[in-house]
Amino acid sequence: MYLGWPELLTNAWKHTPCDCELLVRETPDGVLVEVTDFADALPALKEPADDAEGGRGLYLLSALVEELESQPLLRGKQV
């Protein structure tokens, strides 16, 4: 079963110059996965070009999860 957290964590590690944190928590409705990093730029969800070598992770993840949110924090963001 694909949970998506490897994609979120890899994106945070690859695209931000700072540390990141992973939280996986069981809830009554399923599983909540949160990745927090300390860079201010929010991720942009966009449909990749057919011939693009990357840029599909967040797009595919958004199609698989019930809800995908990005929240700015005082320092960084949580996805």
Rg value? 13 Å
Beta percentage is 25-35%
The strand order across the widest sheet is: 1-2-4-3
The number of distinct helices, counting runs of at least 4 residues, comes to: 2
Give the CA-based shape.
Answer: globular
Average residue-wise pLDDT: 82
The string of secondary-structure elements, in order, is: HEEHEE
Helix content: 10-25%
The domain count comes to: 1
List the helices and strands and how they pair.
Layout (H helix, E strand, L loop, with lengths): L4 H11 L4 E8 L2 E8 L19 H8 L6 E2 L4 E2 L1
Antiparallel strand pairs: 1-2, 2-4, 3-4
Summarize the structure in words:
With 79 residues, this protein is of the alpha+beta class. The protein has one domain (5-78). It contains 2 helices and 4 strands.
Q: What are the key terms here?
A:
single chain, 79 residues, alpha+beta, 4-stranded antiparallel beta sheet, 2 helices, 4 strands, globular
Short structural description:
Keywords: Kinase, Serine/threonine-protein kinase, Transferase. By secondary structure, this protein is an alpha+beta fold.
